[in-house]
Design a protein that fits this description.
- The chain has 174 residues and is mainly alpha-helical.
- The strands form three sheets. The protein has a two-stranded antiparallel sheet. Strands 3-4 form a two-stranded antiparallel sheet. The chain has a two-stranded antiparallel ribbon with strand order 5-6.
- It is 53% helix and 10% strand.
- It has seven helices and six strands.
Length: 174
Amino acid sequence: MLVNLALEGRAGGRSYSGLQERALRQAFAEQLHAPMRQRLLSVDDAGARLYSVAVALRPVFEAPDETAAAKTLNDLMRRYGARPYLVDDVGQPFHLHFHGDGETDVEALAGEFAVSLALLMDTFGTRRFGICHAKECDRAYVDITRNGSKLYCSEACAARMKMAEYRARSNRNR
């Protein structure tokens, strides 16, 4: 996730410094399908632009309530000019994308990210995204599981917290 790659903080109980521009551009591009990867890598200052998008998206995950999340998402969708269109990429039937307007493909992706979070919020409220519930971790998560029970940014954080809860129960029972 872009926000977690770019921004410093705590990840799994350890300090995380965030990726610098070149490393951020490369790491994020590796997560994209080939045509978009090539377009993103052709943007000279993609790392700096990706960092700006991450900074703009972070408040959505930290929002104290749905009103604040909605305001931030509305601002982002307006800022990046997100608009729907149909695409038949990556071997799927036609489906909607919401690329935004902007100078580069980074801003186009930013519009898509904002709309994706808005659609998630429209369907489920803000309970499907947020900040990891693990101690000493402030990474963002998006929950696309069927039952909507995800509270952690990674399996590592989930396992760490389950182990901590187990140890606490064991200590109480002694």
